[in-house]
Amino acid sequence: MSISESQWPDHGLCLGEFEAKLRTRLSLQEVQVSGTPDQFVVLAVGEVFADMNRVQRQLAVQTALAEYISDGDVCAVAVQAYSPTEWAEVSSPPS
């Protein structure tokens, strides 16, 4: 399954549900979730990450999704988390 599929039928999970939970729980400006239940990727942008290191960012996202991780619905999460300033720098093409 890929990001183009909005639901993982075997698990009854919906990518939009994860995105909504993350957006609400972390007050994110942007969030995208892709992948499969065995390995999925979260791209998150929010002011909450401004004073966090990489490990703290990973833990913040995992904590927001703890109910899915503890249930075993999600096995692995790769997190790409940025503050809005960092995101502006990495997402804009070089001049």
Runs in which pLDDT lies below 50 for 5 or more consecutive residues are: 1-11
Please give the order of strands in the largest beta sheet: 3-4-5
As a whole number of angstroms, the C-alpha radius of gyration is: 13 Å
Helix content: 25-40%
Largest sheet: 3 strands, mixed
**Which structural category do the helix and sheet elements fall into?**
alpha+beta
How would you describe what is shown here?
The protein has 95 residues and is an alpha+beta fold. The chain has helices at residues 15-26, 54-64, 66-70, 84-91, and strands spanning 7-8, 13-14, 30-36, 39-45, 77-82. A hairpin with a 4-residue loop joins strand 1 and strand 2 (13-14). It is globular. Mean pLDDT is 83; it is low at 1-11.
Descriptive terms for the model:
single chain; 95 residues; alpha+beta; two-stranded antiparallel ribbon; 5 strands; 38% helix; globular
How are the SSEs placed, and which strands pair?
Blueprint: E1 7-8, E2 13-14, H1 15-26, E3 30-36, E4 39-45, H2 54-64, H3 66-70, E5 77-82, H4 84-91
Parallel strand pairs: 4-5
Antiparallel strand pairs: 1-2, 3-4
What is shown here, in short?
The protein is of the alpha+beta class and 95 residues long. The chain has four helices and five strands, in the order E-E-H-E-E-H-H-E-H.
